[in-house]
Amino acid sequence: MPIDILMPALSPTMTEGKLAKWVKKEGDTIKAGDVIAEIETDKATMEVEAVDEGTLAKILVPEGTENVAVNTAIALLAGEGESASDVSAAKAPAAAEAPKAEAPKEEAKPAAAPAAPAVKAPVAPPPSDEDRFFKNTQTMTVREALRDAMAEEMRKDGSVFVMGEEVAEYQGAYKVTQGLLQEFGPDRVIDTPITEHGFAGLAVGAAFGGLRPVVEFMTFNFSMQAIDHIINSAAKTLYMSGGQMGCPIVFRGPNGAAARVAAQHSQEYSSWYAHIPGLKVVSPYSAADAKGLLKAAIRDPNPVVFLENEILYGHSFEVPTDPDFIIPIGRAKIERAGTDVTITAFSLQVGMALAAADKLAEQGISAEVINLRSIRPLDVHTIVESVKKTNRLVSVEEGWPFAGIGAEMSAVMMEHAFDYLDAPVVRVHGKDVPMPYAANLEKLALPQVDDVVTAAKAVLYR
Amino acid sequence: MATTTRRRAKPAENAAPEPTQEELLHYYKEMLLIRRFEEKAGQLYGMGLIGGFCHLYIGQEAVVVGMQAAQLPGDSVITSYRDHGHMLACGMEAKGVMAELTGRAGGYSKGKGGSMHMFSREKNFYGGHGIVGAQTPIGTGLAFAHKYKKDGCIDVCYLGDGAVNQGQVYESFNMAALWKLPVIYVIENNKYAMGTSQQRASAGELYLRGSAYGIPGKQVNGMDVLEVKKAADEAVAYVRGGNGPMILEMKTYRYRGHSMSDPAKYRTKEEVNKMRSEYDCIDHLKSLLFTKGYADEESLKVIDRDVKAVVTEAADFATNSPEPDASELWTDILVEA
């Protein structure tokens, strides 16, 4: 059978081009890889190479022809044992039958994609029986709770290991990994060089290779060095591989402002990472949150960004003693029930919201405080159910307002609670400036209890 | 042997046994398969059946075929976006690779990854990565996992002469050397990082880029599959022996542009033609097969026909496999716990 040589597309956007020159003549023998013609696109002149072998039987489009559409037959190639004259006689130029299938046509687009989950009613959060664990508790700091979570998971699963800067011999820059080297040894508690991009990528590779890395960033500020691997390598590869390449990894460390360390060391990353499909983003407040969520994060088959807070490390809370205690990712916690206004917060700001609720109570206002705990997936159900009751929402976060978590809360209210709102959502957030060093300016830049009180009163028109 | 350190154990340089007829014919078939596959991919791209970026491996076939011949089952492989040849060499099916190029349900990533993002856990091929250099720490991490699990396997991590100027490559070299990870970094130096020649982009010799870390490096004629295989054997023995990483710089050449839409004006036609006519890895092996009396025109024609049949079948499959179902838009974002 003679073969049609088609006008090729030579760039992702080319639809037609000029057949500038025939390099081969009719009757020439052609081998795979030979340059047969030159084509001008809107960008450049490109060479067309033969794929099949044979004799150039007939040129259908003469050189110099402009606006030749992609996939037009431009010549006929006679195969082995065929002569050029056979081809010319047997085949009309228009009968392009060699390519068995055509390129997918524009109009053959798939039917409208299934509706995005966002427009569906909020899904109930994963079931949890965490309350029953609080019968027997002990007091511990967030720092100890995080360490215990890692130690328990490492005892349970030999593929779990911890790596990061100063996590082993130094016992952690903030002492979160204290004692792990002594218990698990240097093969599983690994001091890295100061090489965030490198060790984040290495840990992703280890996760692809069947391990469960827990990567500590000394602070999340330094994760910006590694963000390509968190997003492009860890978060997207499952999708890009059609479901083959899961990446069970935890990136953890302190997030947000500590105290007096200025702009480069005081940044809040929840909205950065929560933007990314393929990541889970968790930000605990209490020691119980820290322990239950970190255990869930380590067991999760997906990449989890685990945002801690340096100031909270030394705070103490009651933590269940039962080793089976775990908090499923995706479930918010109502820290304080109320009826007049809903206040959402996460991490250190939960404490701020609770303090504000105390002050509001003194003024006869009953605030419901929701500790988000999980930023992505967000427990929209719990938030919406609360707003159905209070009809008012204040969102509190330490980060910047633009495209922040408060902006997302506002969108969630538009999509799921519009008819229940009695006032516009008010956002309490860090000021839209790089973090200043001076103590007075730093205080001005961060949300304060009175900011939350003022916001709550504003949505109540009081 | 241009090792850069004298203190470390030297890669073994035992006289390798002469390659057998069977081995040579196998290399021939593998290299021809990659070339014919890539030519077909170029054609399908021209027909609009493959979209976006498509980086062809034509000219470089000896590198991956020679390396793969030295590896053992279980060894992992990772590379960047010029990856079709690596997948075929790893034993992934031409049908599945081609169907991924056409964005169809029958592709290795169900049509969701495309030319630059394909994987096969079964064949220990870990991609297929679109960010230049990003495969280097990931490959180093695969080697870390081999060492952690004590499975006796190694990782072969390919990177180009463009990727070697990314900082993360040196972060990886440092950790691999520090922790003696079983990884071979194969620098495929095809002389051009897209349109920028090695001379314009890279100071010094690429095989020496690990010298400050004590990583031995060797420059290899990547246009000759037997020289690649010999260097690979030595490197595999060295790395599997627990001596830490090694660098192989393969001097090679791509005949086509950087991607399908590259007119390649940064080099002369004469240069390309000289490489194709005088240094082609397939032609070279073909004359060797003739000289040794291992094959004649007729017997190679049989191989050519077999390869062509595989490629034709792949192209048919890739054009007839349906597009992914619309519901696939929402799958594989997270693993269900």
CATH architecture of chain B: 3-Layer(aba) Sandwich
CATH architecture descriptor name of the largest domain in chain A: 3-Layer(aba) Sandwich
Interface with most residues:
A-B, 72 and 76 residues
Helix/strand/pairing category of chain B: alpha/beta
Q: Report how far the terminal alpha carbons of chain B are from each other.
A: 51 Å
Strand content of chain A: 15-25%
Over the alpha carbons, how many angstroms does the gyration radius of chain A reach? 31 Å
CATH superfamily of chain B, by name, is Thiamin diphosphate (ThDP)-binding fold, Pyr/PP domains
What does this molecule look like?
The complex is a heterodimer of chains A (462) and B (337). Chain A folds into 3 domains: 3-94, RNA polymerase II/Efflux pump adaptor protein, barrel-sandwich hybrid domain (OB fold (Dihydrolipoamide Acetyltransferase, E2P)), CATH 2.40.50; 136-320, Thiamin diphosphate (ThDP)-binding fold, Pyr/PP domains (Rossmann fold); 333-459, Rossmann fold (3-Layer(aba) Sandwich), CATH 3.40.50.920. In chain A, 28% of the residues lie in helices and 22% in strands. Chain A has 14 helices and 22 strands. Chain A has helices spanning 84-90, 130-133, 142-156, 180-184, 196-208, 227-235, 237-240, 270-274, 287-299, 348-362, 380-390, 405-416, 439-445, 449-459; strands at residues 3-6, 16-22, 29-30, 35-40, 45-49, 54-59, 65-69, 73-78, 137-141, 160-164, 189-191, 212-216, 250-254, 280-282, 304-308, 316-320, 333-336, 341-345, 367-371, 374-376, 393-396, 426-428. In chain A, the strands form 5 sheets. A 7-stranded mixed sheet of chain A has the order 11-10-12-13-15-14-20, sandwiched between helices. A 5-stranded mixed sheet of chain A has the order 17-19-18-21-22, sandwiched between helices. Chain A is elongated. In chain A, 51% of the residues are buried. Chain B has 337 residues and is of the alpha/beta class. In chain B, helix 2 crosses helix 8 (225-240) and helix 4 packs across helix 11. Mean pLDDT of chain B is 94; it is low at 1-9. At the A-B interface, strand 5, helix 5, helix 6 and helix 7 of A face helix 1, strand 2, helix 5, helix 6 and helix 11 of B.
